[in-house]
Structure formats: structure tokens, C-alpha cells
G protein-activated inward rectifier potassium channel 1 (Oncorhynchus tshawytscha), 441 residues
Amino acid sequence: MNCFKGRFGQDVEKQDQKLSKPRWDTTKNKVPTDRTMVVGGRQGGGCKGSNRSGGTLRKRRQRYVEKDGKCNVHHGNVREKYRYMTDIFTTLVDLKWRFNLLVFTLVYTTTWVFFGLIWWLIAYIRGDLDHTDDGDWIPCVNNLNGFVSAFLFSIETETTIGYGYRVITDKCPEGILLLLVQAILGSIVNAFMVGCMFVKISQPKQRAETLMFSHKAVISVRDSKLCLMFRVGDLRNSHIVEASIRAKLIHSKQTKEGEFIPLNQTDINVGFDTGDDRLFLVSPLIICHEFNEGSPFWEISQEQLEREEFEVVVILEGMVEATGMTCQARSSYLDSEVMWGERFTPVLSLEEGFYEVDYESFHHTYPTPTPTSSARELVELAKKGEAIPLPPQSPPPVLEPPPPHPEKEEDSGEEEVEAIGHGEGDNVSSGDANRMDDGHE
């Protein structure tokens, strides 16, 4: 039987046409990176890319969003690159620090050299360089005797240092005009470059480093309903103002017309209608998504969850209290990182006069009785009045006592004898008391 999907999401009615790019469903075209995750494929099946012998196929899963919030999307074949220069300020801010500092240095150096060259040309055309030793000659700029001195005068003019050794005279109108132009353009360059550096330094991207997301997401019952939950926390004492949380389900989708959407985005309701998506993030909070009829997990059971391929992207936004700038932190959970039948371990405890958060247990979970059926099946069972089946719980592991230390064997033996003696005395006393009670009766 032929596979249902076409070549990498090609429409069913266009399967006979060749794609312009090489196929990536073959192993030789895949490049392993540190941003891929190896998961187990299905067993059996006759489609290309599966193991016909019935063995487990290993394939690589590419994350859409990394755990640290970086998006694995690269823009290629962009022909209209002039758009980046249209918004040059944002382009400079988005550059890496080494390129930003390089541009910063080149801009200032270029302006100094350019205006220094003009000052030198004015002195050269006026003949000031030929009368450097003539005391009766009035030059355009005093003590300007070459290109180096012209370059130094350009730096002094643009940075308003003014050492007082080189100064323009009133007998040079072209020099006065150039001085006005350099002063104005220098102010514009200073405002642009200093503003760019200030925005880049004050970017709230590093603030997201202290916003934590749990390593795993869990599915369990809360208030008699199946829920998808994950935990968020803030490590700083300066809080995120107007914090809000939202989530997206990234999964492949094929429409009824045969169109294949490889990275379809579906909203996951985490309390938008009730206001629970607005967070007061003082202590770690567990974000909950209820499996209802509008949920994309409405018909997902535990068995089906193990076969699905999806990614849940969570986005936390808010304003930094110290700067007032908007901050965004992102993370994601693959289908293999969603644990069915687990709950998060409590991390908040009451101390004397304050609450303490134990971040060592922030990512810890523990098993809880959770039905393996989907939310839709549970609702149907509840309407019929039938009991909800729960999987058998495995008994907790029995911890064996540690072996006694060889140096303390004799001491422990004596303590055991004394303990046995005390135990026998207690038993005798209890027996005597019982016999006395029997005698009174």
C-alpha cells in the first residue's frame, strides 16, 4: 500500500511533479546537528523511510524552538536585501557584538579621516602648507602642516576636545562652512551610534536567562479533567510586570483537499478566557491547559500520545521592572518530553516570616493515578455513569538497609543485646498487666 503523504508535504494532486529542492526524507541528505533529537520510529509498514523487517527505525527530530528560546529557522534565498538597509537602526542593533563594535569603530574612523582629508585639501589649495614657516602668512587653520595634523584637527573638532593648539582663523570662509557641516554631521553620528549602543546594551534579552521553564511537561487529572501542565519561575527579586503566558502547538497537518502544512500553529488555551494567563510571577507557577472540546488534545490518549509527533512552544512575556522594556522568554516541549501520569513536586514551603522556594525540586515530578483514555472518552464514560478505569500503580521500591560498618560490629552487637533485654522486660510487664486484668475479671 502506498504512503498517504506525498514528497515532503507535496499536494496529492501534484505528486507526479518534481520538487525544485532535494528531498530530505533520505538519510544521506540529513546532517546531524546538536539541535536534533533521535527518537524511535514506528515498527513495520511499507512506506519509504520505515523498516520493512519490522524493526525500530531511528530518525531525527528537528526542534522548532530550542530549550533556551532560540528559533531554528534560517532565512535563505532572500533577494530583496535592501529591506535590511531600509531599517538600518534595527539591523545594527540585531548584529552580533563583534560586528556592532566593528561598525561603531569604522563609522567614527571614516568620518574623522574624511573631514581630515577635506581640511588638508583646503590647506593645500590655499597654499598654507608652503608657508608653514612664514610668520606673516594667515592660514586657514593655525599649526596645520600636513595630513596628520589635519586628521588630529578633525578629531578635535568632531569630539569638541579643543586642545587650543590648532584653531581656525576668521580669514577662511570655506573653513568656517566646513566647521559647521562637521559639527552638525558629527552630532548626528554621535546620536545614531550612541543610541544604537545604548539600545543594544539595555536589551532585555539577558533578563530571560533568569526566567525558568520546567524541563518536562506533564499530563494528569486536575479537578476531574485531564490537563497539560508545565511550570515557570523567576529567579530575580525584581519581578516581571504584566506577565502573560501563551502556548502554541506545532504539528504537521493535512487538509481535506490534500494540502500538507508542515509546521501548522494551533493556539493552546492556558487561561485566556478566564484571565489565568495573566501571571503574578513572584513564586513558581504551574500553567494548566484543560483538555476540552476546543483543545487540540481532546482525542489524544496515552497510547496515541506515544505515536504523535508535535512540539508545544510556550512564550512568557512581560515588562522588566527595572527598565520598563518588554521581555520575552521562550521554550518548547517535544512529544517525548510530555509525561503522562505525572505531577510536579511542590517547591513552596512556609518558614518563619516568609515563603521559601526550593528550586532544586523545580523540575521534579512524581507519578499519580491518571486514566489512559482520552478526554473525550472520559466524558462519554461519565455520561454513561461508568467508572473511569485507572492503570494499576506499581508499588514503591523497597529500600534495603545499608550494611553495618565492620568497625562497629561489636558495639552494635552489645546495643542489640541491651535492646533485646529491654524489649523482653517490656513484654513481661505487658504480660503481667494482662494477667492481672484477667484475674480481676
